[in-house]
Amino acid sequence: MSVYFEEIEVGTEELYGSFTFTEEHIIRFATAFDPQAFHLDHTAAEASHFGALCASGWHTASIWMKLYVQHHQKLQMAARQRGETPAELGPGLGFKNLKWIKPVYVGDRLSYGSKITAKRISEHRPRWGVVTCDNWAVNQNGITVFEFSATVMRERRP
Amino acid sequence: MPRLTFEDFKPGTAMTYGRYAVTLDEIRAYASEYDPQPMHLDAEAAQRSLLGGLAASGWHSCCMMMRMLTDGFLTNTSCMGAPGVDEVRWLKPVFPGDVLSMRHTVISVRASQSKPDRGFVSFHFEMLNQNGDVVLDQRNAIMFALKDMGAVA
Questions:
Q1: Confidence of residue B150 (pLDDT cuts 50, 70, 90)
Q2: Between chains, do B152 and A35 touch, taking CB under 8 Å as contact?
Q3: Over the range B24-44, which residues count as b (16 or more CB within 10 Å of their CB) and which as e?
Q4: What is the ipTM of this complex?
Q5: Which residue in B has a C-alpha nearest to residue A151's C-alpha?
Q6: pTM of the predicted model, to two decimals?
Q7: Which helix (H) or strand (E) holds A151?
Q8: Number of Cβ pairs closer than 8 Å across A and B?
Q9: For residue B92, is pLDDT > 70?
Q10: Are strands B84-90 and B134-145 parallel, antiparallel or unpaired?
Q11: How far is A151 from chain B (nearest CA, A)?
Q12: Of B63, B82, B87, the CB nearest to A62
């Protein structure tokens, strides 16, 4: 929404768009951050319980962040075009209950989204709000493969 | 060193390992692709942000930790991946020039009820910077094959 904390409504759902996991991208990510055989090598992955090459769970999570930022930056740009000063996104404080429910295989197309579940004003930094949201990714067959609950700082209206 | 399986993880045992030198180039490269917010890309904007200086994306910190886990012990185990993460807390920003390392404790172990070939080991992971500050605190279970299952994961 890239609206200020005051305008964020509990219960609001947002869709962030989709991302297709290619073999090249899965292997490149895993080579850098999670070089386990089932994320790198077809033969090893086929012999594993995954049955085929699949993305690192942190790759699935990183793409959530990518689409979340992309979504908000589009809204910030639209606000600037209207002559408004858009709200800043603040840093995240952490997350809970992250679940890698199903493997993400080569060619899978995940659609990401989020729902605001709670909001409060920061005790330590009263210029900022603290917002909690439930986030997910659904694959091309409509199956939820990934979810987590995040807590992020959001700017209050100056 | 023998390959570790589920049976080798004992509650209460701790381990320290890893060395990850964080560079400005890597912070910017990750942020450009996955988290292109000014506080991870632009020194001036970052100075004005809550982070107080250009710092790594929290998800990048998780990825750096994963790399230390993989190199530090997982590739030498019967690891079958992880079902999820109970909790991550980003306690301090990770800055260029930081040198990170890992400490973990095994909290509990549990054989799978539904799949007899594997078990879950619950860990408390802490990623530390060069000053000994915990920058990231993570709790999660990892799945490992049992010794006799011949899993090739």
A1: low
A2: no
A3: eebbbebbebbbbbbbbbeee
A4: 0.95
A5: B89
A6: 0.95
A7: strand A144-155
A8: 108
A9: yes
A10: antiparallel
A11: 10
A12: B63
Name the residue range of residue A151's domain.
5-155
Find all residues with CB under 8 Å of B117, minimum gap 6, and list them. Answer: B145, B146, B149, B151
Chain B residue nearest residue A66, CA to CA:
B34
Distance CA B153, CA B140 (A): 19
Domain segments of chain B: what residues? 6-149
Q: Tell me if B63 and A58 make a contact (CB, 8 A cut-off).
A: yes
Mutate to test the interface with B, among A48, A67, A128, A144 (most CBs of B within 10 A): A48
How many Å apart are CA A88 and CA A94, to the nearest integer? Answer: 18
CB contact (8 A) between residue A95 and residue B86: no
Q: How many domains does chain A have?
A: 1
Q: Which residues, in sequence order, are bridge partners of residue A152?
A: A92, A131
d(CA B147, CA B151): 8
Instruction: Give the chain A residue whose CA is nearest to the CA of B36.
Output: A69
> How open is the CA angle A69-B28-B101, to the nearest 5 degrees?
105
Cβ-based neighbours of A141, under 8 Å, separated by 6 or more: none
B6-149 topology per CATH: Thiol Ester Dehydrase; Chain A (3.10.129)
Q: How far apart are CA B64 and CA A131, in angstroms?
A: 26
Closest among B144, B133, B33, B136 to B79, alpha carbons compared: B144
Confidence class of residue A10 from pLDDT cuts 50, 70 and 90? very high
Between CA A13 and CA A11 the distance in angstroms is 6
Cβ within 8 Å, pair B35-A63: no
User: Of A46, A39, A38, A44, which Cα lies nearest the Cα of A25?
Assistant: A39
**Is B80 within 8 Å of A49 when comparing Cβ atoms?**
yes
Q: What is the pLDDT of residue B2?
A: 62
pLDDT above 90 coverage of chain A, percent = 93
